[in-house]
Design goal:
This protein is mainly α. 70% of the residues lie in helices and 0% in strands.
Length: 234
């Protein structure tokens, strides 16, 4: 197996592990934040999640960028950065789902929700082909309305796209092919910050408006996530 294949396998394992481990942590995370900040509305708590997420992935990128100049450190450091970015992103997205009252208990539905947010417009195109245009409320429909057979078909297409997209962006697959050391890892803190902001924007489009209070359901004025939603693909 090539270094690139090894890297792809590790990225896939990181995503699968995060989808299992971060689910209960996301619930506890939101419960803890509500205890610490009892006056926060759902929207205010989401803004806290945004800030914590950006700090986490930016710090990870800074470490990766610094280590990228060390001979022999590029591939493992860049790979570790992808894993940290993936774990932080999954925790952020599942925490968002908790705030919105959307609980993707099934593993494959969690995977589709996360992949759709991370891949943005490209994921929506795949969903349109696999399940047909489902209109607004994508997060709710992924969790509760799309048949499992369609969920599985979409995940089979989107999984490899995630690995290629984020492995290449972070330099893992590029470095594995012996392109000059540090090219991918040099994205560093600035690159991860940009990826994080795009992920937040994509998550907003998927979940749309949060409940107005903790006693309400999801917002009634949600907008569709699709070609006309104004989203920028992460």
């Amino acid at each position: 197996m090539s270094k690139a294949d090894d890297a792809k396998s590790l990225i896939q394992q990181a995503l699968d592990k995060a989808l299992v481990v971060q689910q209960p942590l996301a619930r506890k995370n939101v419960e803890r934040l509500r205890r610490v900040h009892p006056g926060d509305t759902p929207q205010e708590l989401i803004r806290r999640l945004d800030r914590y997420y950006l700090v986490s992935v930016t710090a990870s990128g800074g470490v990766s960028g610094a280590a990228g100049i060390v001979p022999g450190a590029g591939i493992p450091t860049a790979l570790a950065d992808v894993m940290v970015f993936t774990e932080a992103s999954v925790l952020y997205m599942l925490s968002m789902a908790e705030v919105h009252g959307t609980h993707p208990e099934d593993f494959e539905r969690r995977r589709l929700l996360v992949l759709t947010i991370l891949l943005g417009r490209g994921a929506v195109k795949v969903l349109n082909k696999v399940v047909g245009r489902t209109g607004p409320y994508w997060a709710r429909r992924i969790v509760g309305a799309i048949p499992m057979s369609a969920i599985n078909r979409a995940n089979k297409v989107l999984g490899p796209r995630f690995i290629t997209k984020y492995g290449t962006k972070q330099g893992v697959l590029v470095l594995s092919k012996q392109v000059p050391l540090g090219i991918g890892a040099a994205f560093g803190a600035g690159g991860n910050h940009v990826f994080g902001r795009l992920t937040i924007k994509s998550a907003r489009a998927i979940f749309a408006e949060p409940p107005s209070s903790w006693d309400d359901g999801a917002g009634e004025d949600e907008v569709p996530f699709g070609p006309d939603s104004g989203d920028s693909t992460p």
